[in-house]
Amino acid sequence: MSVDQVQDIGGEEEGAVAANGGVVEAAAALSSYPVAPGYRLNVRSGPGTGYSLVRVLSEGARVTINCQRTGERVSGPYGTSNIWDNIGSGQYVSDTYILTGSDGYVAPRC
Length: 110
Hints:
The radius of gyration is 14 Å and the shape is globular. The protein has no helices and 10 strands. By secondary structure, the chain is mostly beta strands. The relative contact order is 0.24.
């Protein structure tokens, strides 16, 4: 089976220049989050390891979380959780492999 590898998805964080020349951070939904260091992360077609493999993210990848939903409980480098992050149409990763800075939801529910 062939798997496409991706260096980076979702793009860089976007921002706008404020009147005083500072940068205004984009909404949380547009923020990108890093995959845990040293991991190549499987992207699944649904919120669990029983769903088909869509692709594999390379070490150092960042993801943009569109929405989150509950699914299979998984243990990873950032704990144990049943939260799965939607990073694209039909593309889910376990939140336990994404450094969001939170043990809960950081995006709207799917």
